[in-house]
Amino acid sequence: MIRHQVLLVDDCLEDRVTYRRFLEKDSNLHYQIREATCAETALEQCDQQFPDTIVLDYLLPDADGLEFLAELKQQFPERSPSVILLTGQGNEAVALQARQLGVQAFLVKGELTAPLFREAVHHALSLSVNKAAETLSQTG
Fold it and tell me: Which residues are in the Response regulatory domain (predicted)?
């Protein structure tokens, strides 16, 4: 059984519990879920075991989501995980910047449902798998 590596990065325990519950009730895929409450811890987790997908809160105690993504690209230039960015409110400028940094989905927490969240994760994972396959074919 394939277990997709998902890193939940959010300083709100209640939100992390919700995301975890959404994924645990997914009947189509299986996950190994890890959690971080700040950018620094998330980067350390990426160093230990790089995730397939990162579910990232835009506002973290030590960085915003865009700063985290920039640091992730700097520390791991050869890796490009799929990223889902979550925010408390929609902001077109942030969404545009996030897309330019490679974010696959930009979701507003207040509008989040389990099916929407799982669909975003499935899409992000399929992109991650395709990227990995392309990288293997280029190096092989």
Answer: 5-124
Q: What is the pLDDT of residues 21-80, one digit of tens each?
A: 999 999 999 999 999 999 999 999 999 999 999 999 999 999 999 999 999 999 998 887
What is the spatial order of strands in the sheet that 82-87 belongs to?
A: 30-36, 3-9, 53-57, 82-87, 105-108
Residue 22: Cβ within 10 Å count: 18
> Looking at residue 81, which CATH number applies to its domain?
3.40.50.2300
Per the CB < 8 A criterion, the answer to whether 108 and 90 are in contact is yes
Number of domains the chain is built from: 1
135 in any annotated domain:
no
What are 90's two structure tokens? 């929609």
What Rg do the C-alpha atoms of the chain give, in angstroms?
Answer: 14
User: How far is Cα 107 from Cα 118, in angstroms, rounded to an integer?
Assistant: 12
